[in-house]
Specification:
7 helices; binds heme C; Cytochrome Bc1 Complex, Chain D, domain 2; mainly alpha
């Protein structure tokens, strides 16, 4: 047997002995996508994180805890304006990001975030947009 084969066999043995460890490592990797990267990919194509400008969607500066549909100078849908007496609490943001049209029928925002852990991380991140 040459040296390479021995190495391969040793790795196979190690994986066979610790399949659970390998699985845990994979899960950790999936959840370890930094929230800044998630936010960049999933949100910042349509939203600015600072006061200006409004892009396809309204800017998200200070949106956490603020009244719904209250960013300056943005033409909201009637669907979101109908919610204007409510605030963007964590629960409301979670519901909106889960299924925008269920939370605010008629909203112009199409994308959603199916993964609960990702929603939570994104909402935490939005608290910091001041
Ligand atoms: C394809 C474009 C697009 C993407 C991507 C997108 N949004 Fe939106 N978003 C919109 C639009 C358009 C609105 C305005 C909705 C309306 O007026 O009904 C909106 C509205 C919002 C609002 C309400 C703001 C307010 O002032 O009341 C929040 C909060 C929000 N988006 C968060 C997010 C987050 C977080 C992400 C990423 C997970 C995201 N959006 C991704 C287009 C997008």
């Amino acid at each position: 047997m040459n040296r390479q084969r021995i190495t391969v066999a040793a790795i196979a043995l190690a994986l066979a002995a610790f399949p659970a460890a390998a699985l845990v490592a994979n899960n950790a990797q999936a959840q370890d996508v930094p929230v800044t990267e998630l936010f960049q990919k999933k949100c910042l194509t349509c939203h600015s994180p600072t006061a200006a400008p409004n892009l396809k969607g309204p800017d998200l500066k200070g949106v956490f805890g603020k009244s719904i549909a209250a960013q300056k100078g943005y033409a909201y849908s009637d669907g979101l304006k109908a919610k204007a007496s409510m605030k963007w609490t964590a629960a409301n943001l979670d519901a909106y990001l889960t299924k925008p049209k269920d939370f605010a029928p008629g909203t112009k925002m199409i994308p959603s975030v199916g993964d609960a852990a990702q929603r939570k991380a994104i909402i935490e991140h939005m608290k910091g947009l001041k």
